[in-house]
Structure formats: C-alpha cells, structure tokens
C-alpha cells in the first residue's frame, strides 16, 4: 500500500473488446476488465484530475487527497474515445490522455504500433524472428552484427520473452530510423496485410475527437510528435519534438501553460529535463513502476503503475 501523501498513477494503452476483435493477439486490457479495475481503484483510492495535481505541484493549492489515484492513457488510440471516454464520463472521472501528434496530423502509423500488430498477427514468433534477421542480411548486415545484437538484446522482459524483446528493440531504436521504418513497413504489410494510412485511420483518434475530450473536461498532454526514444536523439531534435507537440496541443485546445509531459517509452535524459523546465512543463510521467511522492523538485520524473499491477 502507498504511504499517505503518495500518488498512484495508472498507465493504460489498449483498452478494447479484444477477444472478439480482428486482432485477438494484441496485448491489451479487455473493456470489461477495465470497468472492473475502475471499481477496484474507486474502492481503494480517490480519483483526482490533472488540474488537481498541477495545482498542488505549482503551489496553487495545498490540498491533496491522502490516497489519490490518477488515470493516464498513452498513444491516442481510438479505443480511448470509443470505450474509455464514455465510461469515465459516466463515472465522473477525469482522465489524462497523451496522443503523439504525428499519427493524428499525418495519418501515419507509429513504429511501436506497427510492431504491436505485427506481433499480434504473427502466429509463429520464430518465423518473425527469422524474417527480421533475413531483412538485415538482405541489406548486407553481417552475421556477427546480428549475433551480437541477439546476445545483447534477446533478454526476457517484464511481460515478453527474449525473442520478442529482440524484435521490439531492433525495430524501435537499435537500427537507424529510416532503415528500421522501412523494415517495419515491410513486415507490417506481410503480416497485417494493410496499408499504413488505412490502418492509422482505424487505430488513432482524430483531431476532432481529441478536441471533444478537451471540451468534456479530460486532460490532454504532450507525448511528443514522432514518439521517439528521447534519450536516443540529440537535444535539438528533442526540442523540435516538444515544440511540435505543443503546437498540436494548441491546435486541439489543450493547455500549454503548466502542462504535463508523458515520455514515450518512459525515455528521457538530462537534456529533456532542461528543455521541459524552459518550456514551463511542470509534471513528467515516466514508466518507472511505483507510487510517486509529491516532491515538487522531482515532479518531472513521476512514477506510474501499469494496469497489470492491479486486479482486473
């Protein structure tokens, strides 16, 4: 149990009716489980809004619940509009939504989501593992390069076996951006059998839907523009990512004064923190697991729990 004064923040991604969908292999939370989890969290904690948290962190308010819970929803999925939003409105709960701007503005597909649906569509993980390595061989990468990366990256994670971690890391950050994008697109077309633009329209919220979230009292914050691993790109690229995201927030009517950042993949570094401080960001959400003490000096590095850390 958390200590009095700590904040429990819960992180969600896919929330949908999974078993009866076209992609039953996607790793997400069944909508029925989401509703049961809200029942559980509501019995243990007091739900708060982003505005309450911001007011406390900025010193505008000294009041804060002893057992507070904040709900966050990453990546701007249509799931959040179709399933999450109506349920939160019905229960009078304010959630925090963090859509990356590029999929909404350019009708494109994030590499991380392309990878998710490749994995969900692949019935044979070993075949996918081999297909990825064959793509590397076709581009003249040596066997020693492939073996070194397998040795370093193929380590089991919190939720994934070693082979899946290897596939994710190679396509998310290890290869140069243009190359990993090219290989991901080829694997996506092979396994999912849809175009990027067509799939993007199905997967993400539109700008108009995000505007409706804002008008209805939900909080919409920054998740950057391209959804890069910020600790893997230069400081000037980070700043461009953040600036373009802030312009997107302005376009959809979301606040850009005393605003909240949600780091893609939980990745950031000292450059990120310096840029955010200059741009009047007051809260940053990581993917580090645990409750967060309400230390105003550490508000740019707040922890979050995953939905899997609570009963569903």
Automatic annotation (TrEMBL):
It is found in: Secreted. PROSITE patterns: NODB. InterPro entries: Glyco_hydro/deAcase_b/a-brl, NODB_dom, Polysacch_Deacetylase. CDD domains: CE4_DAC_u2_5s. Gene3D superfamilies: Glycoside hydrolase/deacetylase. It holds the Pfam family Polysacc_deac_1. Keywords: Signal. Residues 67-312 form the NodB homology domain. PANTHER family: POLY-BETA-1,6-N-ACETYL-D-GLUCOSAMINE N-DEACETYLASE (PTHR34216:SF3), PTHR34216. This is Polysaccharide deacetylase. It comes from Gimesia maris.
């Amino acid at each position: 149990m958390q200590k009095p004064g700590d904040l429990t923040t819960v992180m969600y991604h896919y929330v949908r009716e999974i078993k009866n969908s076209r992609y039953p292999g996607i790793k997400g939370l069944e909508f029925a489980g989401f509703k049961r989890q809200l029942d559980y969290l509501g019995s243990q904690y007091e739900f708060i809004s982003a505005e309450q948290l911001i007011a406390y962190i900025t010193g505008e308010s000294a009041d804060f619940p002893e057992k507070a819970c904040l709900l966050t929803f990453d990546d701007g999925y249509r799931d959040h509009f179709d399933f999450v939003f109506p349920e939160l409105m019905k229960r009078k709960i304010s959630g925090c939504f963090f859509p990356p701007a590029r999929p909404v503005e350019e009708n494109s597909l994030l590499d991380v989501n392309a990878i998710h649906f490749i994995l969900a569509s692949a019935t044979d993980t070993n075949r996918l593992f081999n297909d990825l390595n064959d793509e590397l061989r076709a581009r003249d990468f040596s066997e020693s390069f492939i073996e070194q990366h397998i040795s370093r990256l193929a380590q089991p994670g919190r939720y994934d076996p070693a082979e899946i971690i290897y596939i994710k890391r190679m396509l998310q950050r290890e290869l140069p951006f243009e190359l990993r994008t090219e290989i991901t697109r080829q694997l996506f077309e092979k396994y999912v059998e849809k175009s990027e633009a067509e799939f993007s329209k199905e997967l993400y919220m539109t700008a108009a839907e995000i505007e409706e979230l804002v008008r209805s009292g939900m909080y919409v914050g920054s998740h950057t523009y391209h959804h890069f691993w910020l600790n893997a790109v230069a400081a000037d690229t980070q700043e461009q990512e953040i600036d373009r995201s802030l312009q997107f927030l302005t376009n959809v009517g979301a606040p850009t004064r005393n605003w909240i950042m949600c780091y893609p993949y939980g990745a950031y570094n000292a450059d990120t923190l310096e840029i955010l401080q200059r741009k009047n960001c007051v809260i940053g959400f990581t993917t580090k697991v645990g409750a967060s003490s309400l230390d105003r000096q550490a508000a740019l590095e707040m922890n979050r729990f995953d939905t899997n850390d609570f009963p569903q």
